[in-house]
Amino acid sequence: MAIDGRNLQILANYCAAAADAMAFTLMRTAHSTFVKETEDFSCQIVSRDGLAFASPRSFGAPWYSGIDYGPVLAMIDGYQEGDICITNDSYAGNVATHSPDIHIWKPVFHQGEIVCFVVGHIHNTDVGGAVPASLSRSLTEIVQEGIRIPPLKIISGGQMNEAVAQIMRLNVRAPDQNWGDFNAQIASVNIGERKVQEIIARFGIDDFLTGVEGILDYAEQQARSIISTIPDGEYFYADYADEDGEGGYPCRIAITLRIKGDSLELDYTGSDPQLASSLNMPTGGRERHPLALVGVTYVLSTLDRSLLLNAGTLRPTRAILPPGTIMNCEAPAAVGMRSLTCAMSQIATVGAFSLAMPDRLPANSPGGNSIINIRTVDTQNRTVVASLGPVGGGAGGTPKHDGPDGSGGLSAFLKNTPIEINEAEVPVRFHRYGLAADSAGAGKYRGGLATEMAFEVFAPNTTITARNRNRSVFSSAGAAGGRAGSTSWFRTTRPDGSVIEHGNTDVIHCGPGDVVTVKGPGAGGYGAAKDRDANAVLRDVQCGFLSEQAAREQYGVVVQRGEIDLSATEALRAAMPGAGDKHFDLGAAREGFEALWTEDRYRLLTAFLAERPVVWRHFLKHQVFAAVQKGEGSDLPLDEQMAGLFARLMAQFPALSAA
Q1: What φ, ψ does residue 236 adopt, rounded to 5°?
Q2: pLDDT of residue 2
Q3: Which among 247, 384, 463, 482 is least surrounded, fewest beta carbons within 10 Å?
Q4: CA-to-CA distance for 611 and 617, rounded, in angstroms?
Q5: Are 186 and 104 in contact, with CB atoms under 8 Å apart?
Q6: pLDDT tens digit sequence for 172-198
Q7: What GO terms in the biological process aspect are recorded for it (predicted)?
Q8: Residue 1 above 60 pLDDT?
Q9: What's the gap between Cα 607 and its chain centre?
């Protein structure tokens, strides 16, 4: 069978179906809720060089569709049939990107030669470390984030390495659950191997190998064709996580997007320095690292739904990832919360593309999708470690319709866990799980509503982790006249009625009768709110998505006794502003912050920090922020003020000059 255009598509479909089979096997045989319900896993088939050419089409974590396993494949000294290799070490090849992500790979042989690898990862609910579920922004080095497994053969020639297996089980909080998930991974790659052999039997080995390269080349051609429709130019956008550590200052992700012809570049210069917290991203500086380019994958796929998603998709793109920064950290930096940084980089990417194509892309998604985990004991006093699922928000409003509620946007294919499953497996009782009223950014097409979860715990010394807590300060931006979404919250109500506000804290401790409530952030709206169909506003009120007060204040629509007061609405809307000249509504908190921390001020800070030792950078950032916040040198021109602050720090800490 010759690999022409039609047969190449057929081969691509067969390979995607094989990846689907791997994913179904993993999902149906896994033990943890986080895998079998939330679906935080990936499965791929990769070339002999490690480039992914097939991934599941509608579930799992699509962040990894363009992954390159090449660096870790090369770390194994020789392969034989029956081998399965493993790693979760973020600094070994930069394939695993935080400790809970266990990656495995298996070579597929044909007549004694490797023809491809079947690979994949799962996010384990817990891999040991300082806190239950292993992840918190408070952690400062990777050794606190759980067991680390260097690239090695966990199964050699079909035989399990029992010594490594014993170490894996001994160092986690839920060993039976983790081992069940690991066996599901093994079943997944075994199914993938079998499916690849069936494809080779159908197409022949020569056409299969030729077709693999053809699939990658075709995705590249598609991507270049899409990029060529985007106006050439340079576009800048930045966004912020609320904190760069516990109680810290805002954490900046900055992107300069450069488009020229059918290629593009994402320059992350201006992003925060490497942090003494776990928000760092271990990309190794690889210019096509999938986590640095997820936003590009999403944008290109949005512009053309027929785009094949694989490593070829990313060939027209390169990322500039300055070393010693949050986007390219150095060991032993903690990296557990890299998922929040990745989410913010996706928002910044979409924001930059939105400036290039304001009428084709949506407003901001939330950027604060908290993964709620619990460690408690059941009525038999047995330890339970489980994920209760994500609590986030919907997608930004688009030029043509409202943003989806509660999910979508940057949530990938991750799914919520039904409360019936949670209550059956975890000793908690849910008080509420649903959409949060008045949370969406207003607009002609409103943003997606946030979700809200409230549950009661029944045991002392219960620990709740809320990974990726964010957006309790900064909002998700609206676009083209749309308004920013609402902020999030995280609180505990004690049995005596007292309420504790946790802000962006991501690890809390609870006792019997405590009710924990988490509300996600709302997404930004698109287009001026006064232009929204009044009947759509009424429908949101009737559905409980919007209060009558918010309908009046945000949309100028007066609803009384379940009907629109037409004359009052007309009068209110006549006085409302239109879209205005600014493409983004950033929200009051961010606008106030950027009035002080302008692009010019950040440029000077970035240049200063880049010349300092990596270990000093987070500390020095905080010193400069504190001085600026106090107004030190504020009577001077900006360049002189910042130069004076830098000179004072150099004099105060002689080790900086010596370095």
Answers
A1: -115, 135
A2: 58
A3: 247
A4: 9
A5: yes
A6: 999 999 999 999 999 999 999 999 999
A7: glutathione metabolic process
A8: no
A9: 28
- Collapsing DSSP to helix, strand or coil, 225 comes out as helix
The whole-number pLDDT of residue 267 equals 98
> Residue 624: is it exposed, middle or buried by C-beta count within 10 angstroms (0-12/13-18/19+)?
buried
Cα 627 from Cα 630, distance rounded (Å): 5
Rg over alpha carbons for the chain, rounded to the nearest Å, is: 25
Helix (H) or strand (E) holding 152: strand 152-156
DSSP code, position 314? G
**What pLDDT, on the 0 to 100 scale, is given for residue 579?**
83
> HSE on the CB side for 438, CA within 13 Å?
8
Neighbours of 565 (CB within 10 A): 15
Among the listed residues 139, 113, 116, the one whose alpha carbon sits nearest the alpha carbon of residue 128: 139
Rounded to the nearest 10 degrees, how much is the dihedral formed by the CA atoms of 456, 458, 459, 461? 20
Q: Is the peptide bond before 390 cis (omega within 30 degrees of 0)?
A: no
Q: What is the DSSP letter of 193?
A: H
**Alpha carbon 214 to its chain's center:** 30
Q: How many CB atoms lie within 10 A of CB 120?
A: 27
DSSP H or E segment with residue 59: none
- Residues 6 or more apart whose CB falls under 8 angstroms from that of 579 comprise 480, 481, 527, 528
Structure tokens at 121: 């990862």
Q: What is the mean pLDDT of the chain?
A: 94
Write down the pLDDT at residue 415: 80
Structure tokens at 525: 């709206």
Q: Is 51 left (phi over 0), alpha (psi -120 to 50) or beta?
A: beta
Tokens of 274: 């490497």
Count CB-CB contacts under 10 A for residue 183: 13
Judge residue 400's burial from the number of C-beta atoms within 10 Å of its C-beta, 0-12 exposed, 13-18 middle, 19 or more buried: exposed
Q: What's the pTM?
A: 0.94
* Whether residue 110 has pLDDT greater than 90: yes
Instruction: Give SS3 for 333.
Output: strand
Q: How far apart are the first and last CA of the chain?
A: 63
Which residues, listed in sequence order, are joined to residue 377 by a DSSP beta bridge?
383
**How many Cα neighbours within 13 Å face the side chain of 244?**
23
The predicted structure's pLDDT at residue 59: 81
The pLDDT value recorded for residue 469 is 93
pLDDT in tens, 436-449: 999 999 999 999 99
Structure tokens at 566: 């037409």
Q: What share of the chain is helix, strand, coil (3-state, %, to 5)?
A: 35, 20, 45
453 touches 515 (CB < 8 A): no
- What angle separates helix 294-303 from helix 205-227, to the nearest 10 degrees? 80
| Nearest in space to 254 (alpha carbons), one of 315, 316, 327, 314 | 327
The Cα 605–Cα 159 span in angstroms is 54
- Calculate mean pLDDT across residues 243-268: 96
